[in-house]
Amino acid sequence: MTPAQFRALFPALASTVWLDTPGAPPGARPVVEALRETLSAWSSGDFDWQDWDAAAATARTLFAEFTGVDPATVSTLGSLAEAAATVAASLPPGRIVVPAEEFRSNLFPWSARHEVVAVPTRDGVTRVEDLVDALDDRVSLLAVSEVTSREGQRLDLAALRAATDRVGARLFVNLTQSLGALRFDAARIRPDYFAVHGYKWMLCPRGAAWLVTRPDRVDGLRALAPSWKSTSPPYGYFGGPADLAPDAARCDASPAWFSWVGAIPALRLLASLDAERVERHCLALAGELTERAEAAGLRRVTDGPASHIVVLRTGQADGIAVRLRERGVRATALGDRVRFGFHYFNDEHDAAAAASALAHGGAPAGAVTGNDHRVE
To answer: In the CATH scheme, what is the code of domain 3-27+275-374?
Structure first.
């Protein structure tokens, strides 16, 4: 599928330049149609709830195929925070290293159960070398996002894996801001755990998330909230004993049906794309905007490897937000920075529209104060 063919599946793009997928993407037609049919069946009563209930298991299989892992290592959950909390509850007491500016869903769950070492940013950026320096034999786990939400920084996961191996620590990777746009090779990185909430780059409804546990760690998983879904099928409803599933399904959350109904067509849609081509396309557009922004006097917050998320530092975020809104561009102004994200449905016209807004008065300045602004 070409980018143009993919773009045609998103009705919102006919009138909006959507560069806010780091917040949430517009609905893809196959996903919206599946949800619309489900709502219609719910309204008419022409449905079987057991079909809805089976959607999470189907999505587990599709997700495992998409990421190249064994379905027995995949837990179906409701959020990234739930995935992190599940791992936190499964670990013995220990020290957890996390970037200080990490998204809170990958920060707070660790501090609720463990001693957390929050590694500060340097020059406003999370640095791989600083994370490595924080690791020693007292650390039981390093938790990071492959691409940071506030900075658009793409971390070198191979280097972090090597560093954790040296001190005997585990590695938890949050892929919520990367999977679906960037390729991820689980066999090469060998994370002990990786998780993703699918409502961003995976194009799913909010409420569909996955936790993947390396096969040699599955036995140590502890269900955060054991329920009727924690056993092996066929599921029972009443009485005990609590005969939990032998694989990662023991940590499944009781599913929000409609989220998983929508996740199935989203996964099938992503699986129909060429992952290498998607990544190349997204990075090229991000690079184009970065070059145009530099010509307007704006610089990326990060100075590391390029990602599909471009975060520019500016003292005029409010003004830029207004100009973007006037041009029908969706992005996010975050205090002293403006964030753009490129998916496979974006094109060079989107990058040009954003660059045009930046070129008209987007000169850099000091940090500004005030609330973050969502650009509508």
So the answer is: 3.90.1150.10
